């Protein structure tokens, strides 16, 4: 998978072409009507052991951005972090005190790093694997919640640093990532956790935040055919994986629809991959052990997440 040779959006996929792609990816990702794990089925115990073998430097790096608590163009409803204990200068000088706090946040948005559960994307009134949409109700998701990943996700992570391949600091909003086989000499394989860097965080740091709900770089829907072919288990990006404007006629988030709803892939959105890119560059390798541990939100549609790469 790599970027197109020059900047600019790819061609718009018409409705019939998208519908055919959606059906092909559904057919390629079928584990039977009772399945609730989706792409996690691709990760076997043997692959977890092999992923542990990727650790050679003993270096760890977070793939999450700091949780944002300030209003910004890309985060109009940020997390709320408040102290619930008295200030430290009021602590009992002769006894025990505790510092305590509370965090409230939206799981899904355009700023904070999170993982999408398989119940997150409802398309044509169905969830992944034809589960009825009404299984998601006022108390949460009765099916396909983030509890599916309660034991954690561990596998070989593969970073595709698209700006590095293009020779540019970042992809501009509206640019697409498309499929190819020879990027960085790393061949994607079954059970891999594929992380695609478009340089969103670096652009944000240098130019300031913008309304990324309306303009962002991401994957072209056609790239999901390669993801399916290589049996990738999890897909993530430092964007929200979908380009805006959309590359598919009449579908605002085509990559979410294809990955989560058709293929059963847990998506990692709005990661921070700049530190990982630097470490991979230094090490001269683009694969590593990756550990993702969602919160145990029993009926949750996703979770804030702090994935860790271990090189």
Describe, in plain words, how this protein is organized in 3D.
It is a single chain. The protein is an alpha/beta fold. The radius of gyration is 20 Å and the shape is globular. A hairpin with a 2-residue loop joins strand 5 and strand 6. The chain has helices spanning 15-28, 45-52, 162-166, 200-207, 224-229, 254-262, 274-283; strands at 60-62, 80-83, 101-104, 114-116, 136-137, 140-141, 153-161, 176-177, 193-197, 218-219, 234-237, 266-269, 287-292, 302-304, 308-310. The protein has 7 helices and 15 strands. It has a 9-stranded mixed β-sheet with strand order 1-15-13-7-9-11-12-4-14, with helices on both faces. A two-stranded antiparallel ribbon has the order 2-3. The chain has a two-stranded antiparallel sheet with strand order 5-6.
């Amino acid at each position: 998978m790599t970027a197109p040779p020059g900047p600019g959006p790819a061609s718009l996929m018409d409705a019939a072409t998208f519908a055919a792609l959606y059906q092909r990816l559904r057919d390629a990702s079928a584990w039977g009507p009772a399945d609730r794990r989706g792409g996690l089925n691709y990760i076997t115990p043997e692959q977890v052991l092999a992923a542990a073998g990727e650790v050679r430097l003993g270096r760890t790096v977070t793939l999450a951005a700091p949780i944002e608590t300030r209003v910004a163009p890309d985060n109009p409803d940020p997390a709320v972090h408040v102290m619930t204990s008295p200030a430290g200068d009021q602590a009992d000088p002769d006894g025990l005190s505790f510092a305590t706090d509370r965090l409230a946040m939206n799981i899904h948005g355009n700023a904070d790093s999170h993982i999408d559960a398989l119940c997150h994307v409802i398309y044509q009134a169905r969830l992944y694997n034809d589960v009825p949409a009404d299984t998601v109700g006022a108390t949460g998701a009765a099916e396909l919640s983030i509890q599916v990943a309660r034991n954690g996700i561990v596998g070989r992570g593969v970073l595709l640093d698209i700006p590095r391949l293009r020779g540019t600091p970042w992809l501009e909003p509206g640019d697409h990532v498309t499929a190819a086989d020879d990027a960085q000499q790393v061949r994607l394989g079954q059970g891999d956790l594929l992380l695609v860097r478009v340089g969103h965080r670096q652009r944000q740091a240098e130019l300031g935040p913008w309304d990324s709900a309306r303009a962002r770089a991401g994957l072209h829907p056609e790239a999901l055919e390669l993801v399916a072919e290589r049996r990738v288990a999890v897909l993530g990006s430092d964007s929200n994986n979908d380009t805006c404007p959309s590359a598919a006629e009449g579908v605002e988030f085509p990559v979410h629809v294809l990955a989560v709803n058709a293929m059963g892939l847990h998506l990692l959105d709005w990661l921070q991959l700049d530190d990982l890119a630097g470490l991979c560059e230094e090490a001269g390798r683009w694969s590593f052990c990756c550990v993702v541990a969602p919160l145990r939100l029993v009926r949750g549609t996703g979770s804030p997440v702090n994935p860790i790469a271990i090189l």
